[in-house]
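PT: before anyone asks, these are the final sequences, not the draft ones from last week. 332 residues across everything. Please model them as a single complex and drop the result in this thread when it's through.
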Amino acid sequence: MGIFSADIKSFEDLFLHQLRDIYYAEKQIVKALPDMIEKADNAQLRQAFQHHLEESRGHVQRLEQVFGMIGQEAKGVNCPAIDGIIEEANDIAGDVSDARVLDAALAAAAQAVEHYEMSRYGTLIAWAQEMGNQECARLLQQTLEEEKAADRKLTEIAEDRLNRAA
Amino acid sequence: MGIFSADIKSFEDLFLHQLRDIYYAEKQIVKALPDMIEKADNAQLRQAFQHHLEESRGHVQRLEQVFGMIGQEAKGVNCPAIDGIIEEANDIAGDVSDARVLDAALAAAAQAVEHYEMSRYGTLIAWAQEMGNQECARLLQQTLEEEKAADRKLTEIAEDRLNRAA
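LR: through. Structure below.
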């Protein structure tokens, strides 16, 4: 977002920039998840990641619809935030020896990703409403609900592990 | 977190690493907020940032208490995630000409920071419980509640703006 200050003059510019930011982020997530699926030991966690990979591919397509609705070409901008979050996730997906510890670290990394997405989609929905574009807002809301559900699922898996350990 | 895989063998190691990650993050947030306060135009937003700056200083001290509780020296580790989020926030805090658009961008950046913190504190609390350290979990829960409240406050400010625009 280094060219932000030069480019952003209106709410429409801000919305477009943020849309490009999350488009890049979703594509990076689609690239990162297969490695996390491979590394995860717990079957529930692997399933949750697999499910979220399929959802994330749908989120990319949904964003392309939103680009279309505002008459813009779908393209990403570099986003140091998601790059940093995924860099941390990739480090975790290295070779921690204990499978249970690695699973906990992978799930935590995925929840950091979910929270980043939740904040960005929340903002985009508010701005779409501010611009009076209810159709975009509704479409983005569908993705936000899926991100929240994915985050809740990861919390449930963590709680299951905690209950088994207790 | 580049040295993660070499260092993390137990849940205690993972907890300590994550604690160092958020300790670094909170300190970076304390450094970043004064510039955001200076750039914000809306009085409510400036107040919310100012309040969160004071809270964040308290979060740093609370983390130092947690380090003490587990018999470790308080120190940070580099965290590319928060660096990336703050890099984006700093870009936004540049010189977007329209005050209302800049306020919206600043609030969005702050919400991305809040969500990162919420995900990290949520994880730390779960792990503290997993390790049977209820005292650490309770202390971290206080911070999590403050982060959630800060995020809700920013959403309310955005909704107020939306209602005034309607």
